[in-house]
Each structure stands twice: as structure tokens, then as C-alpha cells.
Specification:
With 279 residues, the chain is α+β, with helices and mostly antiparallel strands. The protein is built from nine helices and twelve strands. It has a domain of 188 residues: Nucleoside Triphosphate Pyrophosphohydrolase. The N terminus and C terminus are likely disordered. It comes from Nocardia macrotermitis. Keywords: Hydrolase, Magnesium, Manganese, Metal-binding.
């Protein structure tokens, strides 16, 4: 989720579009690490922000005929509180966006295996990013099974109604599959890195990165766990969070869980300082 741009002047809020974001984690020397990317300044959405891989749901995500392993669309529908087709689209978008943006593919030749070398699918990755190929077409052509069991639902944030570009984003968590590596080979990111949640928050406090409320909130939550497996096994509150714009001491400020802690640590000199951070 990211800065949605100018506020909406019309009294009718823009309807949020579905999106999926994946927090890819692994165990590091100092504890669990999460994959982060800084989006290029030319992006229309979340320009320059440090985020997790993810993006909007594509119409083809709901229409795909996919061989599926793990919890089925109905299981996800119950967790998300949506219908089956919409749940499938959200999971497919999570898998597709993770592959497009960092080369990690949550799929395998069988229901209990996962590909180890994704570089052999580099051409398909490019075509997926260009929307020349759908996830369903790619998996079918390569005889791959989508591994829904490698994903877990984590959180749900909705962009405030005052924004002109809004998303209803489901956050997922996934552990980096053995043998795979996450990279920065995407047109949407200018820099990528693995970082412990504490290191990422420290960089934000120092003004080195821009973390909007949803990203910051997930990093704070991830920092409570001691291993990637512990994160993956966690049960989280999946109630939707939609920040509300309010006035505090004469200034606009978003209200969301732990917002006082967020604004207390908000870095001086940040390019968002004094403005309305959006999700």
C-alpha cells in the first residue's frame, strides 16, 4: 500500500481496488529478515516508498484455471470474507506479483515440491510483468502447481477514503523457498534488500527510507517473532484496518492502530513530514 496522491474533493469516496502484498521472510544471522524494495520515483503509485512486493489484482487472476495445492479458494474466501472467485484472484495476485517483482515463485512441478531455479522462467516473468501472459497460462504451459500452502493470510489494510487512488490490500506472509533467491530485476524497484524488521524501522527513523503506516505496522508486528517458521505459523487478527483522517493540534493526521507510536518516531526532515501519510 502506498501514498495515494491528491485528496479527493468529491464527497463520494473512490471505491478501493483489490491488491495483494507478500511479506517474504527468511532466517538471518540476527533473526528473521524480510524482503523490501524501494519503488522507483517514476511510479504513479508509492513512488520512492520502501514496501513489500505486491500490486493490484488483475482480471485474469480470477479467471485462471489453475492446478492448486494447499488451502483452496473457499478456505481463503472464508478468511478474507469475500466470495470464492475474489479469494482466488487475491491468492493468484500474491503469487504472480511475488514472481514478477522479485523472482520468487511459489509453485512446483507437484503438490509437494517447489521450483528451485526460477531463472529458467525469466522470459515468462517479463511477459507476466508486461501483461502479455497470465499466471494461469504460465503455470499451465510449464506444468506447475500453485502452492497456496506456502502462503498465510496476515493483515488487511484499506486506503483512507480521502485518497484518489485506493486499495483494499491483503497482506500475506511466505517463507523464501529453499534454493530460490529474491532479486531486484523489476522495472518497479530501484533498490532491494533483506532486512530485519528492527533494521528497517531504524532506517525509517533515521530518514533513510519512507515507510507508510501499513508497512511500518507489519514490520513492528514481524519484529515480535524469533524465526521465519514462527512468523509463518502465527495466527493474526485479520480485521480490516482503514485509517481515518482527523485533526490533531490543528494539523491533519491519520488515525490507525498504534498511530501515536508511529508519529512519535516519525523522522524529522522526511519528505512526508507535515503532510498526510497515506496507506
Amino acid at each position: 500500500m502506498a501514498n495515494g496522491g491528491a485528496a479527493v474533493n468529491d464527497s463520494t469516496p473512490v471505491a478501493p481496488k483489490d491488491a495483494s502484498t507478500v511479506m517474504l521472510v527468511r532466517d538471518g544471522v540476527s533473526g528473521p529478515e524480510v524482503f523490501l524494495q524501494r519503488r522507483v520515483e517514476a511510479m504513479a503509485f508509492a513512488a520512492g516508498m520502501t514496501v513489500f512486493p505486491g500490486g493490484g489484482v488483475d482480471p485474469s487472476d480470477a479467471q485462471a484455471e489453475i492446478t492448486w495445492a494447499g488451502p483452496g479458494p473457499q478456505w481463503w474466501a472464508e478468511r478474507f470474507g469475500v466470495d470464492r472467485a475474489r479469494a482466488q484472484a487475491l491468492v493468484c495476485a500474491a503469487v504472480r506479483e511475488t514472481f514478477e517483482e522479485c523472482g520468487v515463485l511459489l509453485a512446483g512441478p507437484t503438490a509437494d515440491s517447489v521450483v528451485s531455479d526460477t531463472s529458467v522462467y525469466s522470459d515468462a516473468r517479463t511477459r507476466l510483468e508486461r501483461r502479455e501472459l497470465s499466471l494461469g497460462q504460465f503455470l499451465a504451459a510449464e506444468n506447475l502447481v500453485l502452492r497456496a500452502d506456502l502462503l498465510r493470510p496476515w493483515a488487511n489494510w484499506i486506503t483512507p477514503t480521502v485518497e484518489s487512488r485506493r486499495y483494499d490490500t491483503r497482506f500475506f506472509v511466505a517463507v523464501l523457498p529453499a534454493g530460490q533467491r529474491a532479486d531486484g530485476a523489476t522495472s518497479e524497484a530501484e533498490h532491494v534488500r533483506w532486512s530485519t524488521p528492527a533494521e528497517a524501522v531504524a532506517r525509517w527513523k533515521a530518514g533513510a527510507d519512507v515507510l507508510l503506516p501499513p508497512t511500518w505496522s507489519q514490520l513492528i508486528a514481524l519484529g515480535e517473532y524469533s524465526s521465519a517458521d514462527e512468523i509463518f505459523s502465527a495466527t493474526t487478527d485479520f480485521e480490516p484496518i482503514e485509517p481515518v483522517l482527523e485533526t490533531v493540534d490543528g494539523k491533519p493526521r491519520l488515525r490507525f492502530p498504534n498511530n501515536e507510536r508511529y508519529f512519535a518516531d516519525y523522522p524529522e526532515g522526511s519528505r512526508l513530514r507535515g503532510s498526510r501519510p497515506a496507506d
